[in-house]
Amino acid sequence: MSAHPVDEKLPALKMATTGLQHVAAMYAGVVAPPLIVGAAIGLTATELTFLTGACLFTAGLATFLQTLGIWNIGARLPFVNGVTFAGVAPMLAIVAATGDKDDALPVIFGAVIVAGLLGFVAAPFFSKAIRFFPPVVTGTVITLIGISLLPVAFGWAQGARPTADDYGSATNLGLAGATLVIVLLLRRFTRGFVKQIAVLLGLVVGTVIAVPLGVTDFSPVADADVVGFPTPFHFGAPQFQTAAIISMCVVMVVSMTESTADMLALGEIVDRPADEKTIAAGLRADTLGSAVSPLFNGFMCSAFAQNIGLVAMTRIRSRYVVAVGGGFLVLMGLCPMAASLIAVVPRPVLGGAGVVLFGSVAASGIQTLVRAGLDKDNNVLIVAVSLAVGIIPITAPEFYHAFPETARIVLDSGISTGCVAAVLLNLVFNHLGRASDARDARDVTHPMEAGEEISGATPARP
Known about the structure:
By secondary structure, this protein is mainly α. It is 66% helix and 1% strand. It has 19 helices and 2 strands. The chain has helices at 12-41, 45-67, 88-97, 104-126, 135-158, 170-189, 192-196, 198-213, 219-223, 242-269, 276-292, 306-314, 319-334, 336-343, 347-370, 377-395, 405-411, 414-430, 438-442; strands at 81-83, 301-303. Strands 1-2 form a two-stranded antiparallel sheet. Residues 443-462 have low confidence and may be disordered. The chain crosses the membrane at residues 24-44, 50-71, 78-98, 104-126, 133-157, 169-186, 198-215, 235-254, 320-343, 349-369, 381-403, 409-429. It is found in: Cell membrane.
């Protein structure tokens, strides 16, 4: 019997190119947090390069755990792991609260280690929440993942830095548009292997186009070292402060919530639905990867939703392809010069490709919702309200500005709030009291109107 596509081992060249495509899709997301936090601490350029390489290295290790797995650790799905953006705000708060900036990273690392270990213990209990994720919930969350990521692509399309003079310029937007068109043309008019690596080819061609426009910066390659190992505890031994630990534990809960949603989304896309055992194993990989990451000077790790879009678009479902991508991440962590090659890709080029990737995630969510039973009035309300709650941080970023910083860690994540809203509304409408109402089980009406049955023939007028 042939292997499931998730367990399929592809030819070496195809594994390498598609694995590299996964790295290209998530590279900016991995390097951004260390650059932001390192700049806030005041690290030198050399130290920033070291911190960034360490995060790439630990992302590769976490990806190995997730894709290949050991014992009951790892979802064994085509899942890329890397530094979670959810931790950036609380880490900046820790930096601001630390008097001696030399202690900031050790305090952060100590908090991440504790949060990771606690999360590892809690993983099997957290995974039992799977029964609260029927298609109406998972479809909503998958759609929100795609919608939440699209602003990232739009930001990339405008340029690398909002403070730059060319941010949002016609050149940058044109370059993003050209990359998008190239990817679409390759997807439309090519076949087989070329069609599957359309995003990678689009990034290469887009970068070549950017060279005469003066957008491509090759200085990262010139300044990078050939070899560099992320020495354990390079910035000092971890320090354990209660406030920092509590803050990062909250981030861990958010990260586990998003990872659960991501695993459910990916399971639908690759036709291997994630059950309770899979989710528990995946969460163990996330949390163990996070606990180990600070040993090599990395931050908290979590699943990368943007790579789900790549799987959905290419239909290459092999977890070994992503494991190869993890190998590239490890090599880039050990070879800063290799890591800097992907840094050459201009941000607008990444933005053009990101529109396709992240839009594919949202489209996958809509496909799941189509199968979720939207002919039921209750499900329509669940989707409507949950999407609205999840979109708040995107459309009104300051909506929760009056809330405490700890609360905002959760509230400013549209994926988390939308997921919680969908789960609670599903419980209220489909499991408590009114779930036995036959009319609710069959009918869909306008949310503001009393319903008439629409599944049968229209009653004759008197």
